[in-house]
Input
Amino acid sequence: MKPFFLKTFLFFIIISFACCKKQASATSANDNVKKQQTTIFSADSAYKYIETQVAFGARVPNSTAHKQCGTFLIDKLSQFCDTIYIQNCQLKAFDGTILHAQNIIGSFNPENKKRILLLAHWDSRPWCDAESDKAKQQTPVLGADDGASGVGVLLEIARCLSIQKPTFGIDILLTDSEDYGVPSWSDERDSQSWCLGSQYWAKNPHVKNYNAEFGILLDMVGGANAIFPIEENSQYYAPHIVAKVWEEAQQLGYSDLFVSQPFGAITDDHLPINEIARIPTIDIIHLNNQTGFPDYWHTTKDDMTNISKNTLKKVGDVVLNSIQ
Output
């Protein structure tokens, strides 16, 4: 009888082990599913980050709203990123105004030599110079889409990366004083009056001899009827990154937003990054071949009513997938 009981005992031991292993595998699989779910880009979260920025008011350099928003952005990136760098700089505007500017950089894996740069500007324009009503032209722009949307998407991407850490280095650069360029009513035309914060960073990166494999700029990425064609400077300086990002969008089923059509050259923060820092960088920006910029651009209408969670979700998905 002993062999029988021994065989029976061994049989139950084997069955119990197999069940435990299966249960452990199931638990592990469930944990992985939960982990993946927690790192999904949340449009609600991105929207809230945009709403918070806009609630401060127009983030014009030297204003109270600008200072308050800067504190908020530093706090959020500090929660998510491994390391924070703050560049305080005095930038001279076209009219001689000294702008007390602040570039804010959040880094993941700062010691890793392989790096990707993501950026957006966090300031907003001092004048609504695209307003047809001249009485409104001196009103500062709230910049829900032009400024806050790109920052909101990057804050949400930072949250995702804080949960599922990247294996390489990622830097999130929030540039200041991008939108303090010469107003449309001026006879002066000076392309260098724009993108002051990114010009400064490109000449004085937060880490000596900084380099990245590529960069992605987000500018006006929250519009309800947004279209993102291929901007000419992006195609010229970084055609391989354009191909990568637009292909990713197509695979995700977002070719309705990321249209494979060329558009003219735009002066934006990616120019100094390309021309001075020599990092191939593209611009994801809302443009329309018929009208150019959206109709609320540089007007009093650039507020939260134009922000679409659907657009935010698609942009966030594309960027996250493109940097993996």
